[in-house]
Structures are given as C-alpha cells and as structure tokens.
Amino acid sequence: MPISDGTFTGPRLKGTIVLPSGDWVVQRPDGSRLLDVRILLQTDDGQKIYTSWRGIAYTPPGGALWARIVPMFETASAKNAWLNNVVAVGVYRPDLGKIAYRVYRIL
C-alpha cells in the first residue's frame, strides 16, 4: 500500500514523509497482518532519515486494532547520526482515521 503523506514529531525531530514510501502488508490465515514499512523521513531542517520497520497487527474479536513495530533508522546526517544506533519499539495509537505510532527509544 502506498503511503500518501505523513508527519512525525518528537523532542529532537520533526518533519514529513518523503514520497514514494510504502507499506507491504501480508494477511495471515489467523487474521493477523505482518507489516513491512519503508519510508524516507525529511526533517524540518532538510536532513534525510531512511526508516524501516517490521511489525504485527491484529484486531481481536470485538476489539480495537492492536499493532507493535520495531523501527530501524539510517542517516548520513551528522546531526542525527545518533539514530543509527537506536533500538526502538512502536505502539499503534488511534488518531482520527490515520495510522499513527508512538515510538519509544529503548537504547
């Protein structure tokens, strides 16, 4: 599925998703979905950050969408080089019909 647009914001980064970017979803027989996302982020000061993640999503009977991701970051930006060594997890959060994640740095 193509990603049509998007933004990101956090304490050290803010910007937009550069197109084209995509989300490859594999529907499994048990109803869960494997997520394979590849996007290019551009910070407000013009720095590029390649981001990819794998994850899993499912909706339990009578429940709301549940999804967890494991993002990886790659950048040649000296300012944002710290991202190259980040270990993170992301948790889906509903946001008025949008796909949104809260990403937590673990290391």
Strand/helix succession: EEEEEEEE
Number of domains: 1
Could you tell me how far the N terminus lies from the C terminus, measured between alpha carbons in angstroms?
Answer: 30 Å
Briefly note the structural class of the backbone.
Answer: mainly beta
Spans where pLDDT lies below 50 across 5 or more residues: none
What is the CATH class designation? Mainly Beta
Radius of gyration: 14 Å
Helix content: under 10%
Which fold name fills CATH's third level, the topology?
A: Porin
The mean pLDDT is 95
Please give a structural write-up.
- The protein has 107 residues and is an all-beta fold.
- It has one domain: Porin.
- Helices cover 0% and strands 56% of the residues.
- The protein is built from no helices and eight strands.
- Strands 1, 2, 3, 4, 5, 6, 7 and 8 form an eight-stranded antiparallel beta sheet that branches.
- The protein starts with a strand and ends with a strand.
Summarize the structure.
The protein is mainly β and 107 residues long. Helix content is 0%, strand content 56%.
Essential attributes:
107 residues, eight-stranded antiparallel β-sheet, globular, Porin, mainly beta, 8 strands
Give the arrangement of secondary structure elements.
Layout: E1 2-3, E2 7-9, E3 14-27, E4 33-43, E5 48-58, E6 66-74, E7 88-92, E8 101-105
Antiparallel strand pairs: 1-3, 2-3, 3-4, 4-5, 5-6, 6-7, 7-8
